[in-house]
Each structure stands twice: as C-alpha cells, then as structure tokens.
Specification:
Elements (H helix, E strand, L loop, with lengths): L8 E6 L15 H13 L5 E6 L11 E4 L5 E4 L6 H16 L18 E5 L6
Parallel strand pairs: 1-2
Antiparallel strand pairs: 1-3, 3-4, 4-5
Helix pairs in contact: 1-2
Length: about 130
C-alpha cells in the first residue's frame, strides 16, 4: 500500500518497558520483546518504519508505542502484552495511518489488537 505523502509512518517502540509482572533479572525487557516482534511484522513494508527508544516515559502504560508521521495526527498506544498479536495489530494500524492523508483511521478498520490501547492523540504541529 502506498501512502498519499512521501513521509513514512514511524512506529517508535519503548525498548525499556517492563510490565508490572516482569521479574528483575528476567533478561530481555517486555519492551525489547515487543520491539523485536514489531520489527519482524513491519519487515519489508515501504511506508512504515520502526525505531526503538529507551523510555517513552509511559511506564504506567507499558508496553508503549507511538505512531507518527510528518504532518499527520500522532498516537500513543500502551498496555500491550509483548506478543505477535499485539505487534501485528500495531503494524496493521500503522499501515492504515500511512495510507491516511491526515493520520486519522476509521474505527471500524482498526485491528482488534489495538482497540482499547490508545493513550493519547497529538495533533500535527501547525505550519509557520
């Protein structure tokens, strides 16, 4: 699917997120697990890119991601379990976001895995 703008949609995954049930010394963080899965699910997509960031400051909503693109509405989503279903839902929503002229995606088209996970919505920064 090709977006209506040249700018890709970016998924930023907090790779330091730890869900409340994460045990100290358990190895890889929940956020790093989710990042691995999101990267795999987005592999080969032209209009969706993935990056990791150590701390999105959404610890109360771990695992947390943001979906954003230049000139479009951006979203923060959280409280994911680091599993393939969540990763595929995040990437599926990002594909729809990339195809949208303003970043707004009709609710009826949202992947089931992301429903109930929205934390914030940010409007694009106005042009000068």
């Amino acid at each position: 699917m090709t977006s209506q703008t040249a700018a890709p949609t970016w998924i930023t995954v907090c790779d330091t997120c730890k869900r409340a049930d994460w045990a100290e010394g358990a190895g890889q963080t929940d956020g790093a697990k989710l990042a691995d899965l999101v990267e795999a699910a987005a592999d080969g997509l032209e209009d969706v890119r993935v990056r990791r960031l150590s701390c999105l400051m959404g610890c109360g909503s771990a695992c947390i991601v943001s979906i954003q693109a230049e000139g479009k509405i951006s979203y923060t989503l959280g409280q994911f379990t680091p599993d393939a279903e969540a990763a595929e839902g995040v990437v599926g929503y990002a594909v729809l976001h990339a195809a949208s002229a303003i970043g707004q995606v009709p609710y009826k088209t949202w992947p089931k895995a992301i429903k109930g996970h929205f934390v914030t919505r940010q409007m694009p920064i106005p042009p000068r």
